[in-house]
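Hey, resending since the last one bounced:
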Amino acid sequence: MTTNDNINPGPVQTRTPVAVLGLGLMGRALAAALLGAGHPTTVWNRSPGKADALAAQGAVRARTAADAVRSAPVVIVCVSTYDVVHQVLDPLAADVDGRTLLNLTSGTPEEARQAASWAAAHGADYLDGAIMGVPQMIGLPGTLLLHGGPRKTFDAQEPLLRVLGGANTYLGDDPGLPLLYDMALLTLLYATGQGLTHAQAMVGTAGVSATEFQPHAASVFHTVLAGLFDAESARVVDEADYATEVSNISTNQLAVGHIIRTSRELGLPTDWLAPVQAGLDRAVREGHAADNPARLIEYVRPDSP
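The structure tokens again:
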């Protein structure tokens, strides 16, 4: 048997080297996904021990943040706060020049914009992003990541971003938009969670377990509350078209009043419901009792009277 040394095995596919700064639960998940996809990955964390498992999987452990940044053209930052982002990166202003920073740290839209300005001033391309999921969801086809910054930077890094989640979405060139979306969606999440907790506490006063109550809660959520998230409800807000034949402000004012009185009778706190009641009461006083409750957005906007 002979071999042919001239056989061309074809092009070797190379993966972009990446550095990951921050190895909390999410940072470790990001680094593991990159390693799994074949990206040479350098990792750094202020507590070095958090890199042990990743090093065992093939990651390069950087001694310093500077070493990590210098190791790769793309740097993913996922730390606890934007204050920490600046503590880590500000001393490395010369090292980020010419690199792409993908910041997946949670914070406020204005913090993201300030970080983007800092990056631009020091010669780095910059995307800010928000991960709409938990660490166990990293790398899955349906995992949503929201991104903001220059379109050309997103397009250049989109193949790498797909490694982290299959539902990457570009929101625009404003780097603050991903965190604005993030905070809006978390507002929805926590408000819903608070409502469920309160509901469970209410029925619990009669000895009804959360397990017994859950099918009814799920049914109402899917059949009734889901209507809040359809295209028609969004159109009502965008067009300020508050006429309704379904459920008006007066009806909801009475319902919230009943919830508050019942809660007080049961010894449950009602302070979180006070702003809801106040908005409904105001709308009725101002002559909008027959309108869609979506009108309450007029009292929430920063330019509301």
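The CA atoms of residues 93 and 122 lie 6 Å apart.

Sorry for the duplicate.
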